Each structure stands twice: as structure tokens, then as C-alpha cells.
């Protein structure tokens, strides 16, 4: 920021004093004893007019040209996109006046005060407060620059969500609106979207407003201004921490598609693919299952990256086709069949390890 004129005057005076003292130091001899003596009568009193500092340029010991030259040295070349330090000196109905050291005070419009919704400027700024500002545009015809805080917060918000995505973090955010496609939330001040297919809740979508949901990042694209999140992935990951492949769980049929059925298992959905319903061929899942059916299923795959849980009843059939002829028999023997399935997986793992060792030894 540009110093005030009195500071500039002082700097010029100091420069001349240094210059003069350097000349004297290089040209004068050792001072004589009589040169060091003084008369106390020569010292002006505290209220003497001659003791007061005079800041008029005419008596400052340098010319107007020298002052203008030094002033120009402090006139920074402000450019759009720059970050500058500034001090708030006035809050007005439509924005704030900011001193950034330019010849004319800069102006920050009300809509640029924050990335979040605020009631007034005083929610964010206070008079005499100093902080960083973003220059939005060139000087207008009056030589005034337009500033923003929102742009700084916007850039830092995208940096933050990119880091959160990189860490595969789970965040919590409040649903502030819903539409036909899904739900809207705010993350670090940015608007995010949860597709309907990634909302996993027992409430209907319209009743989610005001709810805080755990979320995972699906897409973070600043250039396209796209921030897409998944509630289902966050729930599945949480649930997966307590689940394992080969485990039998109780679920309820929530939806049936031509390719399979979606089973709710404690608040998260797993897919029972048509090929995993029975050893026997099935034309459509509707021939075997109905919405709201309670059933036992076994977990055959946990994909935390995509937030998917794959289920099977085929692996629980004591005899091929039992899911078509006697589903209750399958559910009664589910744990017994699951134990056999786990043993089979363990034996396959051991065989694979032995083969790996044999290959390594033969190389």
C-alpha cells in the first residue's frame, strides 16, 4: 500500500541527510574542539515555533518534481487476477470502499463479499479491517478497480475439494434443495449435486431437505463447474467396514429390474443379479421375487471404490433350482451353505498361493 505524503517526505529527507552526511564523512577533517562546543541559549524551547516540524513541501528541502518522482515509485501496476492487501475504510449499501494503495479507492460489490450467502457486508467485513482481495477488472473511467473476496474463496474451495477427493474423504453436508434429478448440497461453499441413483435413504427424496448426509466425491471438475457426490458410496463404505465376503445378511427387496433385484441390507442397497438368483435359468426376476420380500442373501463381492455390494442366493442353494421350488429351504440352510462357500474360497486361495510359489521357483 502507498505510504502517506508525510512518510514520503520523511524518506526523501532521510535520503538527502544520508547523502550529505556521506559527503561530509568523506571530505571533512577531524572536528576541532571548539566546533563541538554549544551554547544552551541556542536550543529552542518546546513551544518555540522553530522547534515544530513543518511538512509543507515548499520547506521540505526538495522540489515538487522530486516528490512526484518518489510518489510514482510507489504507484503499483495493478492487474486483473492479482491478489492485493487492502484496508476497509467504508461500508456502503451496495459494497465496500477499499484502500489498496492506488490513486483511487477500489470498490467491492456486495455480491463479491463472500462465496456464502450473507445478510450484509458487516457479516464479513469491519471498518479498518485489513485483508487480501482479488482484482477483478481493469480500472474504469474513474480510475477505480473492482475487487472480490468471493473469487479468492472460490479458488481455495476448489483446491480443498480436490484434496478431499484425493484423500477419498467422507464429508457431511446438508441438503438444501431437491429436484427431479437428485439433491443439492454445499461443500466448502460450492454447490454440489447428488444424483438420485446415488441417494440411499429410507426417506423419500423430498423429505431429505435439512438432513445432513455422509457423502463421497464422484466428480470434481472446476473447469466445467461440476461437483458430483454420492450418498450411497459413503453408506456402503461405512457398511463395508462391518461386512465381509461370504457373510449371510437379511434384506428386503426394494426394486426389481430385468437384470436383477436391489436388496436393502441395513440402509444400503446390494444387487442380486439375475445370474446369482439360482443355478437354474430364470427368464425374469419377477418370476421368483416380489417387492418387500424378506430374504437371506450372501455377500459375494464388496466394491468400495464404486460403492457396490454384490449378492447371491445361488451360492446358498442346497440343490440347484431350490430358489425356484423351495426358497424357504434355501433360507433355512443359508448359514450352513455359506460356511461351505467360505471354505471353498479359502481352499482356492491356498491353491493360488501354491501355484504362485511353484512358478516363482521354476523361473
Word description of this protein:
Pfam families: S1 (PF00575). Keywords: Repeat, Ribonucleoprotein, Ribosomal protein, RNA-binding. Belongs to the bacterial ribosomal protein bS1 family. The structure is a single chain. With 363 residues, this protein is of the alpha+beta class. The chain has 3 domains: 56-148, Beta Barrel (OB fold (Dihydrolipoamide Acetyltransferase, E2P)); 158-235, OB fold (Dihydrolipoamide Acetyltransferase, E2P); 244-346, OB fold (Dihydrolipoamide Acetyltransferase, E2P) (Beta Barrel). 27% of the residues lie in helices and 27% in strands. It is built from 7 helices and 15 strands. Strands 3-2-1-4-5 form a 5-stranded antiparallel sheet. A 5-stranded antiparallel sheet has the order 8-7-6-9-10. The chain has a 5-stranded mixed barrel with strand order 11-12-13-15-14. Helix 1 (5-27) packs across helix 2 (64-73). The radius of gyration is 38 Å and the shape is elongated. The two termini are 71 Å apart. Mean pLDDT is 78; it is low at 1-12 and 14-57.
Structural class: alpha+beta
**What is the number of strand segments?**
15
CATH topology of the largest domain: OB fold (Dihydrolipoamide Acetyltransferase, E2P)
Characterize the biggest β-sheet: 5 strands, antiparallel
As a percent range, the share of helical residues equals: 25-40%
Strand order of the largest sheet: 3-2-1-4-5
Amino- and carboxy-terminal Cα gap: 71 Å
Helix count equals: 7
Looking at CATH, the homologous superfamily of the largest domain is Nucleic acid-binding proteins
Rounded Rg: 38 Å
Region (Disordered): 1-57
Function: Binds mRNA.
Organism: Prochlorococcus marinus subsp. pastoris (strain CCMP1986 / NIES-2087 / MED4)
GO molecular function, one term: mRNA binding
